[in-house]
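Possible regression after last week's pipeline update?

I re-ran a chain I had predicted before the update to compare outputs. Posting the input and the new output here so someone can diff against the archived version. Not blocking, just want to make sure nothing changed silently.
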Amino acid sequence: MIDSRRKIIEKVVKIGKYGLTVIADVGAFYYKSQKEKLVELETSSPTHFTDLAYNGICGYNQTDFNLLSEKQRNDIIKHRSMAIKLELLQN
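New output (post-update):
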């Protein structure tokens, strides 16, 4: 996966851009009942890409995130360099 990102980033930089930011919705893992695979991927992925101009943001639906065990949620949050929780306010 990193090799394909590297190729894309090289093309992006070549055309004069600063890098690549990917925003991913991880909801498909829940739809396909692959929560364990999601946790494995999230906790084994690099948290920093010092040799690549790359940023990645994974988006979770709070209801889906709550389907994970407390340990799984904590493992994901601890592995990432940042976690942001957004809440919608209703009038």
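Follow-up from reviewer: compared with the archived run. The chain has a mean pLDDT of 85. Marking as no regression found.
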